[in-house]
Amino acid sequence: MAKCKLEYIWLDGYKPTQSLRSKTKIVTDFSGKVEDAEMWSFDGSSTEQAPGGSSDCLLKPAFVCPDPQRKNGFLVMCEVLNADGTPHESNGRATIDDDDNDFWFGFEQEYFLWDVAIDKPMGFPAEGFPKRPQGPYYCSVGAMNAFGRHIVEEHLDVCLDAGLNVEGINAEVATGQWEFQIFAKGAKEAGDQIWVARYLLERIGEKYNVAINWHCKPLGDTDWNGSGMHANFSNTALRTAGSKDVYDTICQSFAPVVAEHIAVYGADNHMRLTGKHETQSIDTFSYGVSDRGASIRIPIATVERGWKGWLEDRRPNSAADPYKVASRIIKTVKSAEVLV
């Protein structure tokens, strides 16, 4: 009889940006299946999710994978429920209308490796800025250009060992900035995997005393790039359209609901969506083929395949909740399908 360590992971109730929380449950001979992970509870009064006089919140297991960093370990991504079993208001996963997994999502998660000793990105000097502006760091190699690769490579390995569908990594435009990409057939699982990957990266950072900075513009009003979480998405209509008109109709359905999307695309996005650094202005909606300055980019591969493919919403920022992002995109696309 083997003792297994189940790390129950959830999102707290902090606003405007939720944080990851977790705690360990020891069980015997766990199967590794989500249906065999028991419901659990936690003190919601310590996570901004319940008052002290009625503090119990429930953890409903939603996704399970091996924990490569622990012997006999598993990672259990959970939804937060109220004591009566209804979804907690902080539970973005419960709002996703994709029970048939018709929607596929690929998230491009950018972030900064943050040197806590100097409170700046890895590769920055203690005072001022690097001698060279951004440019040489994107997809770079070499000690003058790439900083923190040992952390990034370790993260990639543990994600793959956990069974997460990471499709790639690369150094990003700014010093100390990196990206990983995860794809899943089903919006809920795509969100699950992004959150578990974020959790693993945070835990690796602990080992090296390096923070993971998810803020969309941690270097403020400077000429250094912010961080996004571009959302690539498709459903049957997009994958089989064969028509530019279908793509125009779906893209145009996003124009009247800019505010609704921005509301769940991450805090402080006005600092990032300025119309500079490959972004569209936060209060403007646009779309275009191969246009990285648009709100929604139509990939050239979609056009070359005869208008059968996917779209990329470039507005979600690095700290956004992928559950809420997917939920809003699905709602908008489904509103357009009535017209398609």
Any overview of this molecule?
With 340 residues, this protein is of the alpha+beta class. Helices cover 23% and strands 26% of the residues. It contains 8 helices and 14 strands. Strands 6, 7, 8, 9, 10, 11, 12, 13 and 14 form a 9-stranded mixed β-sheet that branches. A hairpin with a 6-residue loop joins strand 4 (56-66) and strand 5. It is globular and about 55 Å long. The model has no long low-confidence stretch (mean pLDDT 96).
The CATH level-2 architecture of the largest domain is identified as 2-Layer Sandwich
Describe the oligomeric state of these chains in a short phrase.
single chain
Instruction: From the alpha carbons, calculate the radius of gyration and give it in angstroms.
Output: 20 Å
CA-based shape: globular
Classify the helix fraction into a percent range: 10-25%
Q: How many alpha or pi helices?
A: 8
Q: Uncertain spans, ≥5 residues at pLDDT below 50?
A: none
Return the structural class. alpha+beta
Query: Can you tell me the CATH superfamily of the largest domain?
Result: Glutamine synthetase/guanido kinase, catalytic domain
State the separation between the terminal residues, measured CA to CA.
Answer: 56 Å
Number of domains: 2
Mean pLDDT: 96
Please state roughly what percent of the residues sit in beta strands, choosing from under 5%, 5-15%, 15-25%, 25-35%, 35-45% or over 45%.
25-35%
InterPro entries: Gln_synt_N (IPR008147), Gln_synt_N_sf (IPR036651), Gln_synth/guanido_kin_cat_dom (IPR014746), Gln_synth_cat_dom (IPR008146), Gln_synth_gly_rich_site (IPR027303), Gln_synth_N_conserv_site (IPR027302), Glutamine_Synthetase (IPR050292)
Enzyme class: ligase
Protein name: Glutamine synthetase
Domain GS catalytic: 87-340
